[in-house]
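ok trying again, last paste got cut off:
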Amino acid sequence: MIDLTVYNRDGKEIDSLKVDELAFGGSVRYPLLKQAIVMYHANKRVGTATTKSRGMVVGSTRKLFRQKGTGNARVGNSRTGKRVGGGVTFAKVVRDFSKRMPKKQRKLARDSAVLAKLLSNNIVVVDELSFEKPRTRDFVSVLSNLKILNKGSCLVAISSIDANLYKSARNVSRVALMPVADLNAGDICNHSKMLFTKEAFLSLLNKDERSEN
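nice, full thing came through this time. structure:
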């Protein structure tokens, strides 16, 4: 069992949670986690870079001069990749770099990523994160009280979209906000710290228990 402390917005301990490693698979599945991270980065590639091959360049197909007898090196037409204004030898074409994983594998990879953060003490749970109006200063103050602000990047997981919280966090560098239902292994591993609201963390645990039953 893992003891997870729950803090309030002032950084004071107010509660604790008992987390069973079996709720997140029992152990970190590193090969599956690596596969999910590769898919995460591959799906971010646009793949729209293109260059013109010799067949796409406008120009004559006539051989510039005869093969022998001139004393020069043999050449082809003006569209070859050896000449200025010619096509690219191995031209880039539009590609789809996206990869796919089954839904159960994605869930197991996400659980492994969360468990890895738990085992390395990189998850912080706060009782609530609600703001009456958007205010970046208040959000930064909460991160500072929880000693997260100066420890690299942070992924904030919440139970549902909150407009005031989103607007308060969007200008903070190296901080991302995401509903707990959208969590994935790539985003989790891409941040050094995770901040859960208590409601979001419990919903993640309950969701996993319901899916197993």
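cool. The two ends are 21 Å apart (CA to CA). The longest strand covers residues 13-19.
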